[in-house]
Structure formats: C-alpha cells, structure tokens
Amino acid sequence: MQPWKRAIIFLLINIIISASTTLAILFVWDLTHPEYTAISNAARNLNNPPPGTVGVTENPNKKATTATPVMDEYVVREGDTLGEIAEKYKVSIDTLLKVNGLKDANSISVGMAIYIPLTPQVFPTETAVVTRTPIGATPTLAPGAQPPGVVINSVIGVGDITSERVFITRTGSGPLIMNGWKLVDSDGNTFVFPDLVLFEGGAVNIWTTSGTSTVVDLYWGLNNAVWSSGEKVTILNEQGKEAATYTIP
C-alpha cells in the first residue's frame, strides 16, 4: 500500500476515535450535570421559541402596554335606536353597551352622547403600565407637532352613581403618561390617575363608582355621585398645574 493511502486511513481512524470520545464525554456530562443542560435548553428556547408558543418578553412580570382605542362621539337624534347606531358604525350593540356603561339598549335619549370605539377589537382587561418618563423630561416630537394633552369632553350621568363618569380625550402628538395626574371637583374630591398612557386619538372614562379598571375605563371607587350641574371639573398634571377644565352644563 502506498504511504499516502496509509496516512489517509490513519487520519480517518483518528477522526472517528476523537469524535466518539467527544460524544461519550458529552453524554456523561449531561448525565452528571442536568442543571447545565436545563439552562442551555432554556436559553435555546428563549431565542427560538417552539412553534405555537408565545415569545418571551424582556420582563415577563411587566404588564403589556396596549394602545387606547380611538373613540368617536355620536349625539342621539329623534328616532335613533342603539341598534341603528351600532349598524352605522359596524360595531355590536353589546360593545356600545359596555363602552357607554348602559344596561338597556332602549335607555338612550335624544341629545345623549354615545361613544363608539373605532377599533372595537381592542378591549384589554388590564390597565396599561409603562415606564414613567422622568419629571421635567420633554418627549421627542416631530417638527411642528403639538405636545400631548387632554380635553374633558363631557360628564355623563351626572348625579347617578351607576352611570356617572367623566369622558376625556387626548390631544397633541406623542404618548401622554398620566401617572400622578389628578381629577378634582369643586369640593376637593380627588381621583389620582394610575400608571396609564394615552396615545394619539385615545380616550378614557373616569367612573365615580367601583369597578375593574382597563385602559378605557378607570374607577374612582366612591359610594355616592360627586358631580352636579354648574360644577367645575379640573385635571391637574403631575406637577399640580391645570391641564384641562370643564364646567358641567
């Protein structure tokens, strides 16, 4: 046999022996160090989650932030029904009942404001939680854009604890973080906003009664109605400065 052929055979034999030895060592290591194998598998699954599973976020204990649905306002006219309004805006009657805090589809009346979510599929069950912007920090806005703010559109169900709520909407550009903001009445009653973020076109109801808060509905938790005709409603920002006012008709 020629020398070069003999050298190739020896080389192949060495490669096979080395590979077998390495696999044997790894097999023994896996059996004697299961904790390292588990960590390795977890890291592999984190980077490449199996099909059909939800990807892991940076912080699994942090609640997801969901954009507030865009709302439209419709003023009830003579002859209107909630079913007709729902059909016009392509939403369900149940959705309109939930958004407007109504229990009966026949309880609407002329002049009543009905709020319609233009993105009805977005109905999160938890209040949005975001990382707070440091006090005094200025958000980055596009040239010519107005800074974010709020407007108090109306107070609905004045004097009725089951339906009384303040409806506010977003103005300007960029996200508005309302943690620490306050809603106050003329008697000094104060509602403090939780870690809530309102995006462009967003809106939220502040209900006087108790309930489970979401990104479209916040609950004060009071036992009695607080609003009355002629009363001034004020929203104060985190620094205690007046951000919006509204006088109830």
Description:
- The protein has 249 residues and is an alpha+beta fold.
- It has 2 domains: 3-47; 71-134 and 145-247, Immunoglobulin-like.
- The protein has helices at 3-32, 34-47, 82-89, 93-99, and strands spanning 71-75, 113-117, 149-156, 165-171, 176-177, 182-184, 190-192, 197-198, 203-207, 217-219, 232-236, 242-247.
- The chain has a 4-stranded mixed beta sheet, with no helix packed on it.
- The longest helix has 30 residues, at 3-32.
- It is elongated.
- Residues 35-68 and 120-139 have low confidence and may be disordered.
Keywords:
22% strand, Immunoglobulin-like, four-stranded antiparallel sheet, 12 strands, 2 domains, 249 residues, four-stranded mixed sheet
Q: First CA to last CA: what distance?
A: 108 Å
Radius of gyration: 30 Å
Question: How would a crystallographer describe the biggest sheet?
Answer: 4 strands, mixed
Helix/strand class: alpha+beta
Kindly state the percentage of residues in helix: 10-25%
Secondary-structure arrangement, i.e. CATH architecture of the largest domain: Sandwich
CATH superfamily heading of the largest domain: Lamin Tail domain
Assign the CATH topology of the largest domain. Answer: Immunoglobulin-like
Enumerate the strands of the largest sheet in spatial order, edge to edge or round the barrel. Answer: 3-4-9-10
DSSP helical segment count? 4
Q: Which CATH C-level class of the largest domain is it?
A: Mainly Beta
**General form:** elongated
Q: What percent strand?
A: 15-25%
Structure summary, number of beta strands: 12
